[in-house]
Structure prediction request, 302 residues.
Amino acid sequence: MTATFETQRAALADVVAIPVTPFAEDGTVDQDTHRALLRRLLDGGVTTLTPNGNTGEFYALTPQERQLVTELTIDEAGDRAVILVGVGHDVPTAVASAQHARELGAAMVMVHQPVHPYVSQGGWVDYHRAIAEAVPELGVVPYIRNAQLGGARLAELADVCPNVIGVKYAVPDAARFAAFARDAGLERFVWVAGLAEPYAPSYFSAGATGFTSGLVNVAPAVSLNMIEALRSGDYPAAMKVWEQIRRFEELRAANGSANNVTVVKEALASLGLCRREVRPPSRTLPEDERAEVAGIAAGWSI
Prediction:
């Protein structure tokens, strides 16, 4: 591995925050609030940010809004965080987004799981190769949600694209993750538990060294407490955090993760930090569920 990517690799072995995208009353991206939420993460000790992740409502943003979110994040973070920009959609769009991120000074791109209904394993390699080869200076992190994909395919990709340095693995199966990582090369990549805090302890036991988080928007200290426990091998302490966040994450995961972003924004709204609105196909929580989310957030003494 060339020394060029050591900073990026270290940034992935951490809490990889997925910031929300707050909307103003008129439905546009609320730029001032977005900056304020980013500063809150940075001041809370977060050093890796993923603009245009799923918690940021990537698929509900226009191309211009995705560019704006990237620009706001890189400008606000400065040298305080390493930026991993989410890219995706068709190949030309993903390549253009990756090149835009490079021009602005981002260090890495995360390639969203292809949403095409017909994805072959060889085609998966081709898709990621086209993006990685367009930005050889950037670290590239595939976001894997496909349980059918074999680890050997990731190794095949990295053989031709050495800038593929990490993996956000989000298949909810710790045994499958362990096998995939070893088939691809456990030491070859940085393994990020892509299903956040609920799966982090089991995935760390199998080789992950970082995890993504949407919850970190609400309570940065909670997420950082978990990763410190996992780094030190203190699984009982990590599970104490797991117990603390369990109900919040259950609400996010219910009904096929229908309210994954909604619950995070509701918690932030209860703290007076942003509006609760999300875009279709997400939807705000009904009144009778908002109190529970507010109670959980208040209980974290943020």
Remarks:
- Residues 6 and 193 are 19 Å apart (CA to CA).
